[in-house]
Design a protein that fits this description.
- The structure holds 2 protein chains of 2 kinds.
- By secondary structure, chain A is of the alpha/beta class.
- Chain A folds into 2 domains: 49 residues, Helicase, Ruva Protein, domain 3, CATH 1.10.8; 122 residues, Dna Topoisomerase Vi A Subunit, Chain: A, domain 2.
- In chain A, helix 1 crosses helix 2.
- The longest helix of chain A is centred in the N-terminal third of the chain and has 17 residues.
- The radius of gyration of chain A is 21 Å and the shape is globular.
- Chain B has a domain of 174 residues: P-loop containing nucleotide triphosphate hydrolases (Rossmann fold, 3-Layer(aba) Sandwich).
- Chain B is 41% helix and 23% strand.
- Chain B is built from 9 helices and 15 strands.
- In chain B, helix 3 crosses helix 5 and helix 4 packs parallel to helix 6.
- The radius of gyration of chain B is 22 Å and the shape is globular.
- The chains are: A alpha/beta, B alpha/beta.
- The interface between A and B is medium-sized, with 19 and 22 residues.
Chain lengths: 199, 379
């Protein structure tokens, strides 16, 4: 145990995801040895992120204004909405530069053990966004695990009757990989999702 | 397949151990509490990623250490694989294959195939259905490592769905509404994953049946009318024998059973139908072995289940390493001799015994003395 303030810092750092006691100690001593200017910049970033960042009124992505950068951009295709669990999923899909539509961040997935039901997710807001008929396709991009699959199925049931196209991201083989190294679950899914090759 | 090396660091009572192994029989002799079983437990852990003695990983790490390491070299035909597992209680284990880290620990399943005989096997006959389901599932994964993912998915769905039922049931009893809007979706996943597991277990029992009958006769030395039958909590379609071709029909059967059970499930707050409620019924001369079989008959049945697993894996061309943990002491001299005869043809047999004389001469092989977490050549 260290004295007062140093131990407080280690304890706070240790509460962050992915950081154990050893890493917390290493980061704390790194900060102690670092240039005060660098540390102040980190402190300011930490305070500002809580003060200034809010969630987009429309899609619930992180934003610095009423609307996030993507919802505010008139060049984005307003007829496509991609549904994801978390803001970090938006970043992952944006990196592909493939998708030019809008997003909707649910804020998690259906998870009874974690106490998360449909009302704890931004599902009602999603249904409201679809009401005016502008959107023609909804892409379900929740995680390919049990909870993500259940959430996607639940949404498909809720939204299916509204008459728009509802699609699910394909799950399958990684590019640049060797077929023989793919695990059997992935390979099995890829088989289920196979498609006709155009001439 | 066989093992050529086993090294342990801070596993159970072993601070450090480096052991060279060879094909054929090796016997570890030592008094109780000296660390014989720990050796077989470590090997079994590499094969199944679980201990046959305890549910959690904490007891596997030596007192005072924060992690245990099991390293073993597996030779199959003319290929060798070096598997290294790092066991850290409360955290995900890490695995390395041929010195390179693997993405998921589960990826090393299937590299080593073992069949373990242990005193605990008597519970297969005399104990609860859970032990028999575990026996079937362990063998499913040994035959097709992909099944580990199917099992994990199914168990996850059962836990989530049961929590949903319990929470909603409690809310309803206290006058609330109880949110069951997602139940239909969970039912869909329970039915598909459950049907896949059910299809695999049914097919396994079909494959196992003749081997069990034959092994029982060989161990008991007398022809007895033994049978194994899968008892499903879901009414099965007529003439079900499992296999992937039946999956669609089993999905429908699951859905029908879930519809039937729905009111009861909400009332009791648990998932009442599905392979997690099934049993493998063992019977001798038309009567359930549990409750009717004598001690000797029960042992013959337990050994027959293990020997049949051995035969099945062999037939799949997955020649397993046989691990015999202290079983000879449990058996009378006739069963000892027959068991020794039946396991002798295996590529590698690792045996532990408190008294060297308990191990029949057919299994002479190499002998090691185990004392105070050290292993020494006895010859």
């Amino acid at each position: 145990m260290y004295e007062g303030i140093v131990q407080d810092l280690i304890d706070e750092l240790g509460r962050l995801p992915g950081i154990g006691p050893k890493s917390a100690q290493r980061i704390a001593f790194h900060l102690l040895a670092a240039d005060p200017v660098d540390v102040r910049r980190l402190a300011v970033a930490l305070t500002e992120v809580k003060e200034k960042v809010r969630f987009c009124r429309s899609c619930f992505n992180v934003a610095q204004a009423e609307l996030c950068r993507i919802c505010a951009d008139p060049r984005r295709d307003q007829t496509l909405i991609c549904v994801v669990e978390e803001p970090k999923d938006v970043v992952a899909i944006e990196r592909t530069r493939e998708f030019r539509g809008l997003y909707h961040v649910l804020g998690g997935a259906i998870n009874p053990i974690g106490g998360v039901g449909p009302d704890d997710l931004h599902i009602r807001e999603l249904v409201a966004r679809l009401a005016d008929g502008t959107v023609s396709e909804l892409i379900l991009a929740t995680d390919p695990n049990t909870e993500g699959e259940v959430t996607a199925s639940y949404l498909a049931r809720q939204i299916g009757p509204m008459g728009l196209r509802v699609t699910r991201l394909a799950s399958g083989l990684p590019m640049g990989g060797d077929l023989e190294w793919a695990d059997e679950v992935t390979l099995g899914r890829a088989f289920e999702g196979r498609r006709v090759v155009g001439a | 397949m066989h093992l050529t090396h086993l090294s342990l660091v801070d596993f159970r009572s072993y601070p450090a151990l480096d052991l060279t192994l060879s094909p054929g029989t090796t016997t570890f002799v030592g008094s109780n509490g000296q660390g014989k079983t720990n050796l077989l437990e470590a090997i079994g852990y590499v094969a199944t990623l679980a201990s046959h003695r305890v549910a959690g990983d904490a007891p596997l790490v030596r007192d005072g250490a924060d992690r245990a390491i099991v390293r073993t070299r597996i030779v199959r035909g003319d290929r060798a694989a070096l598997v290294e597992l790092e066991i850290v209680p409360g955290r995900a284990n890490r695995a390395r294959l041929n010195r390179a880290p693997v993405t998921r620990t589960r990826d090393v399943l299937g590299l080593l195939c073992t069949v373990l005989f242990a005193p605990e096997d008597l519970a297969l006959v005399k104990g609860d259905p859970a032990g028999r389901r575990q026996f079937l599932d362990g063998l499913l994964v040994a035959r097709a490592p992909r099944m580990a993912a199917v099992l994990a998915d199914y168990e996850r769905v059962v836990r989530q769905r049961s929590t949903l039922l319990r929470t909603a049931g409690a809310a309803r009893r206290s006058g609330g509404r109880g949110d069951l809007r997602t139940l239909d979706v969970w039912d869909g996943y329970l039915a598909t994953h459950g049907a896949e597991l059910l299809a695999a277990r049914l097919a396994l029992v079909e494959a196992l049946r003749p081997a069990v009958v034959e092994a029982y006769a060989a161990v008991a030395g007398a022809a007895a009318e033994v049978a194994i039958d899968y008892r499903a909590s879901v009414p099965l379609p007529e003439g079900s024998v499992g296999g992937t071709g039946e999956r669609e029909r089993l999905v429908e059967a699951m859905h029908a059973a879930l519809a039937d059970a729905r009111a009861r499930e909400i009332e009791r707050g648990m998932t009442l139908v599905g392979p997690h409620r099934d049993d493998l019924q063992l019977s001798i001369a038309g009567r359930p072995a549990r409750g009717y079989a004598s001690h000797g008959e029960s042992w013959s049945f337990a050994l027959a289940l293990r020997l049949a697993s051995f035969e099945l894996l062999r037939a799949d061309d997955r020649e397993p390493v046989l691990l015999l943990d202290d079983v000879f002491a449990e058996l009378d001299s006739r069963r000892r001799a027959r068991l020794a005869e039946l396991v002798a043809p295996a590529e590698q047999v690792l045996v532990t015994a408190a008294v060297g004389g308990d191990v029949p001469a057919e299994l002479a092989g190499r002998r090691y003395l185990v004392a105070d977490a050290e292993v020494h050549d006895a010859d």
